[in-house]
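User: I'm new to structure prediction. If I give you an amino acid sequence, what do you actually give back? Let's try with this one:
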Amino acid sequence: MFSLQTMFGKGDKFYGLLEASADAARQSAAALVAQVGRKASASLEDFSLARRREKDLAAQISEELVNSFVTALDREDIEALSSALYKIPKTVEKFAERYAIVGERLQGIDFLPRAELLLKAAEVVVQMVGQLRDGLRIDRMKKLQDQLQAIESEADRLLLEPYRNLYATATDPMRAMLAKDLFELLEKAVDRCRDVGNVVYATVLKHS
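Assistant: Good question. You get back a string of structure tokens that encode the predicted 3D arrangement of the chain. For your 208 residues, that looks like this:
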């Protein structure tokens, strides 16, 4: 079994940085669940911190790529994974900022089920990135990739339900537009998780 230990050379640092990036993405999704579920306090600073942490980790990865000799794993793969991970908390923060402004106007519209799906997707991302440390096991990655695809399909299905209600019963066009914008940001965040999964899976396929 081929290992990323060989691919990264002195690459344990990359495992840790990528795993920390995945965890920052998961934390931003968890903060969003708290925000829309109103079960715990989640300030905009929580989202900003997760995004800044992700940005700092991406910068560290770029610096390590310059200072490290990487052979078997393409630098482009590491950079692509780092970039894809950064886009998750960035998209989540956009949702949080807009929700903080217009949330009171959207009382009665339930974003929680979609936010919970995002958290599930982010948790799968954490598992996929963590699996890299254990070697390129295509069978394990395929199962996790299938889970991610199933979550994305469920998120797409759920997205249609509020649209039907909003368009059929809406008496306030602005309220409908604001809700549509937020639902689409949630869908985009789930898609960002899918993108990370695609990068990881493609990397494993390349070296399996």
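You can read the tokens as a compact description of the fold. Here is one thing that stands out. DSSP finds seven helices and no strands in the chain.
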